[in-house]
Amino acid sequence: MPETIDLVESFVGKHVVAGHGDRISYIDADLGKVSYQQLYHAAGLFAARLAARGIRSGSRCLVVADDSATAVTAIIGLWWYGCIPVPVSPYLTEKEIGFIAEDSSAAFVYLDVPSGKRTSLAALLSGLEQFDSALVVDDLASAAAGQVGELLACARSSGRQEALVQYTSGSTGLAKGVLHSAAALLEVSAGFGQILALDPSDTVLSTAKLSFGYGFGNSVLLPLTAGACTVLLRGGIDAYVVASAIRTHQPTVLCSVPRIYAALPRIFSAGETSNHALRLAITAGERCPAELIEATELLLGVPVLNGLGATEALHIVIATTDRSEPGATGCAVPGAVATVRGDDGQVLPDDTEGRLHIAGPTVAAGYLNRPDAERRTFADGGVYTGDIAQISSEGSIRYLARTDDMLNLGGHKVAPGEIETVIQAVPGVADCAVIAAHNADGLDEAVAYVVPAAPDSPTLRSAVMSALRTDLAPFKRPNRIEIVESLPTTSTGKLARFQLRTLAAN
Question: Keyword Cell wall biogenesis/degradation, does the record have it (predicted)?
């Protein structure tokens, strides 16, 4: 790794310099096909606008945007100017976005949201002491039209310098900022990228969004390094949207989550999917049953690679390979070292259950403003992923469970307490608990058990649903709401979540 890194050159500029600027970098719902040359110049225009606005190099910038080529332009342009992008889902509530803005000390924000939300968010964020301004960018459209002005020199950074902040939910429900270095961003391609083996002939389709670690790697880090093309999808994504994108754009690599794969057979038959261009499918973000992997391989006729990652390790660090034993989650990707450890931090013997620990070049530098959580998670020369696993003598890793009560919903980590707080504030609710249960496809879903304050509460369910829609992002809302007389407890009076899991299973 060189002493200093030019991220723009590493991801985009090298393709332009090599004479491949006419290759397509992104297929965008609004702009159509965007070449590497257009992306490069648009990012340069964005950087020039930051300079003209007097933005300080090194500042953090909130990128509140759905997946689009203009959002990627903002991210590349921030690196060009030496700023640090903080990708944020536009589907979070204003309260959640405001918290991340304040916690990250972001100096300004790039907004690509509907006009109504943009106005209210800009007003909210402008009230923060550290906040400078809001930017709405049309540089990519300008570059595509040939309006290319003088560009600044690209910023260079040391390998250990902060280059990206990604937010992940914590056990308390408060999001935590994960600090990634410039070197780590490049190392993803040297790790999982070696297994994925993208090249310029590939077209990638990811259902995970840019605002999450899995999606950011799928749609930015890995394809741009390889000079590949990526299809970006705006709005909500379900199996119907994915099936349409497969038919229309003919991607060669599909990166998705188990619940999308579970729904695909209901939309098209194996005969219909035989006309696709896929060579590989990736599943990650949540536990994927072996039966679902086999069914998806039969449906699509291509291998399904199972992956396990964590925001704290930037992307996938465990993946199925030829070395993986049947039924295993996978093996450590190149450069990563996986061990299973006890509560004392010592490595446990083969085939022993313990806490999964990852060491390697993509492990984050730590958390932002969370020293206690950082000491617990980033320890013993790496990071604890929050998973219980076991490792065989051959290096195959089997995921068993989470070490906490965190819900893993479609790849999103959600704290039960965050949902419970919203429900408990609803008038007429005496108590509640939220747990994870398996649905008919064997995938995790959130189930809320609600105890009414009065026995006869016919409108309580609708009141709870209304509160959840108002206060929580869509992916955080329970799939089921059950009204019960009481919650089970242990002999010591603590909530017996395991009994609720049994109840949900039955």
Answer: no
Residue with tokens 């932002």: 368
Q: Which of 158, 183, 218 is the last residue of a domain?
A: 158
Residue 275 belongs to what H/E stretch? none
Mean pLDDT, each 10-residue run in order, the chain (506 residues): 90 98 96 95 90 90 94 95 96 90 92 83 78 55 56 90 90 81 98 98 97 96 99 93 94 93 80 79 88 91 95 97 82 97 95 95 97 95 93 92 78 83 90 87 89 87 94 91 86 70 83
Q: Are residues 281 and 357 in the same domain?
A: yes
pLDDT of residue 492: 46
Report pLDDT for 144: 47
If asked whether residues 150 and 29 sit together in one domain, one would say yes
* Sign for the pseudo-dihedral over CA of 119, 137, 30, 206: negative
Angle at 321 between CA 364 and CA 383, to 5 degrees: 20
B/e letters for 441-455, b = 16+ CB within 10 Å, e = fewer, are eebbbbbbbbbbeee
**Residues 6+ away with beta carbon under 8 Å from 14:** none
Instruction: Give the list of residues 6+ apart from residue 494 with CB closer than 8 angstroms, or none.
Output: none
Instruction: Determine the Cα–Cα distance for residues 262 and 277; give it in Å rounded to an integer.
Output: 20
pLDDT at 143: 53
Cα gap 286→308, rounded to integer Å: 8
pLDDT of residue 149: 65
11 domain-assigned: yes
Token pair, residue 286, equals 């949540």
All residues at 6 or more sequence positions from 480 whose CB lies less than 8 Å from its CB, including other chains: 437, 445, 446, 447, 448, 504
The answer on 391 and 251 residing in a single domain is yes
pLDDT value for 247: 92
If one counts the domains in the chain, the total is 3
Identity at 34, one-letter amino acid code: V
Do 397 and 441 fall into the same domain?
no
Q: Residue 37 is encoded by which pair of tokens? A: 């040359």
Distance of alpha carbon 7 from alpha carbon 83, whole angstroms: 11
Tell me 378's DSSP state: S
| DSSP 3-state of 372 | helix
Q: List Cα–Cα distances, 256 to 297, 439, 443, in angstroms.
A: 14, 18, 14
Q: How many CA atoms lie within 13 A of 86 on its CB side?
A: 27
Quick one: 483 and 461 in the same domain?
A: yes
Predicted confidence at residue 436, as pLDDT, reads 87
